[in-house]
Amino acid sequence: MNDRPVTPTLASRLSQLVAQARTGDAAFASAAAAAERAAAGAGGPQSEGWISAQEAISAAIAAAGPTRIALADIDEISATALRTQGGIAPNDLAAIKNASAEVGAIDQQQAARIKALQRQLGL
Question: Could you give the CA distance from residue 52 to residue 58 in angstroms, rounded to a whole number?
Fold first, then answer.
């Protein structure tokens, strides 16, 4: 069995992607908080406040982009390794799974927050 340590290049790339998601989550949290404040005082559909809240939600969705990109890049690392190498060494696979789980959890939290905002505005 191949029990070599995680390749340094892979470990570095995964670390960068997790950091990207964490940094993106901080920006998302700020944008989502602004959207929540806007949604709380939105008023009726198509009112000026409602439109402002919708724009704030769009900004929050955009702020979630770095997390979605990081998650997609982690998935691509796996797909590329499977395609080019025919498999993934166990420790590399564990590192990929761990990074994917952490970034995936951030992504799910962001998606739930956006969905709640959209429901609040009836979108």
Answer: 10
